[in-house]
Amino acid sequence: MIVARALDELDHAERAVALGSFDGVHVGHRAVLDVAKETGLRTTAVTFWPHPRIVLGNRVELLSSLERRLELLADEEMDETLVVEFTSELARLEPAEFAESILSRIGARVVAVGENFRFGRAASGSPALLSDLGFDVRAIPLVDEVSSTRIRELLRAGDVEGAAKLLGRPPEVEGIVVLGYQRGGTLGYPTANLDVPADLVVPAFGIYAGAALGHRAAVSIGVNPHYGGSERRIEPYLLDFDGDLYGRRLVVELWRRLRDERAFASEDELIQQIAHDVEETRAATRPV
Question: What is the CATH superfamily name and number for domain 171-283?
Answer without folding.
Answer: Riboflavin kinase-like (2.40.30.30)
